[in-house]
Every structure is written in structure tokens, then in C-alpha cells.
Amino acid sequence: MMRPAEIRLTDLTVSYGRRPAVHHLSGRFAPGSLTAVVGPNGAGKSTLLRTLAGLQQPESGRVEGAAGQVALLPQAVALDRAFPIACLDLVLFGLWGESGAFRAVTRAGRERARAALAAVGLGGFEARPVGSLSTGQFQRLLFARLLLQDAPVILLDEPFNALDARTAADLLAMVHRWHGEGRTVIAVLHDLELVQREFPEALLLARDCLGWGPTEAALSAANRLQARRMAEAWMAGPELCQRRDAA
Ligand SMILES: Nc1ncnc2c1ncn2[C@@H]1O[C@H](COP(=O)(O)OP(=O)(O)OP(=O)(O)O)[C@@H](O)[C@H]1O
Fold first, then answer.
1. What is the ipTM, given to two decimal places?
2. 3-class SS at 205?
């Protein structure tokens, strides 16, 4: 694995139409940091991850240090599980960056995919069609693909949603393993207790950034109250970016 670079955000705004979903965000993810991204529904958390992954373009401002380093686990609801493909082949997609889409996967690659399946508790699932997996098994499968991708920066969008305690604990252990290996890990999460217990850093987002740093300070009661107020304001009606209008 490459060492992760620092990821720097400078006055980053990402919009849909004229509506900003991430608003004037500045800060840095240190190499090897483990950060939870927290905030109300519609706060721009998924948009931020997608922008870090290069899937969405900033309207203004900059992202530096993320290009080519990132593996993204999208929100489960965003994925189509109906395609007819076996578990081992889905995990092998994780090697595309290395092997190229049209080059043959080597025997070593298949062995790595098998080992990744075993590591997430899916030994023996190689030939199973993806569509036959339970929600928890499918999430384990996506973690196996991340293992194969071997990226210095790992982005997880609500990775523990709808999982039983055992599956969540196993996948959380994988997150800590990645952190221990020096990767930068950024996870969108709604469970504040889990965040406070397991994540040293947090970014509280409500389109604007309300706190970013050591978790306890970033998620202070005052910051969380402010996040709720902002969510109520955008639920009440669409707003445009005042700062940009004033500029
Ligand atoms: N493709 C899109 N087109 C238009 N608007 C979008 C699109 N994707 C997201 N949005 C809007 O951008 C805002 C932020 O959405 P985003 O999914 O980033 O929030 P989130 O914090 O991840 O929310 P949740 O916790 O509900 O998953 C929301 O108002 C959403 O409706």
C-alpha cells in the first residue's frame, strides 16, 4: 500500500443546481486519521464522500490529496444487488485498478480474492450469486472488495446500517485494522454513541461545517444543537448561498 497523503479541502462548495449540499468547507484529514462524518439527513455527508472519490465535481473551492488514493463503499441503498454475478467475481472488481478491466485476472489475484472472502467470514461463498446474499452478508462482501482494493484512503457511507451486532462488530474490527495499518478512514455514521466510543475524530456537517477535530469537541451539545437548527431551516425551504450572492 502507498502511504496516504494529507487530504486538504479549501473553501469547498458542492451544489445540485444552485443548491449547495456542501458549503464552504475547509480543513484537512491527516494521513492515517480515523474520522466519523456526522450530521442530519440531507447534510451533504454522501455528497462530501462522493466528491472526495472524484465522482462529483466541486462548484467552487478545492480538494487536494485524494485523487487516485481512494476506495469508496457507497450507501447500501445506492447499490443494485440484482446483477447476476458470483461473490468471487464481485470481489475481483477490487483489482480493476491494478489489472485493468480487460486484462485477465491472475491466479494470484483469485487467491487474494478468496483470502479476502475468508477474512470477512464468507469462506465458501465464492460461487454464490450475489443476489442470494442477506443484507449483512452483502456488506461483508463489499468489505472484501475494499480489502482487495488496498487503497490508502477508505471512505465508508453508513457502513453499519441494518446490520446485526455481530456483523457490525466484525466490520468495525476491519475499520480498526485499516486504521492500524496507517490508512486514512472516513466513515459517515448516524450512531453517535458508536462514534464517541470508536472514532477519535469527527466532522459535524450540516451543509456548513459545525465542528471538525477531536470527537468530543466537534460533537459538543452546542454544535449538535446548531446542526439541528440548520436542518430545520433547510427543511423549511430551499435557500441559496448567501455568501456567493454577496460576492
Ligand atoms: N443527485 C442529486 N440531485 C439533486 N439533489 C441531490 C442529489 N443528491 C443529493 N442531493 C441533495 O443534496 C443534499 C445533500 O444530500 P446528501 O445525500 O449528500 O446528504 P446526506 O447527509 O448524505 O443525507 P442522509 O443522511 O439522508 O444520507 C440533499 O438535500 C439532497 O436532496
1. 0.96
2. strand
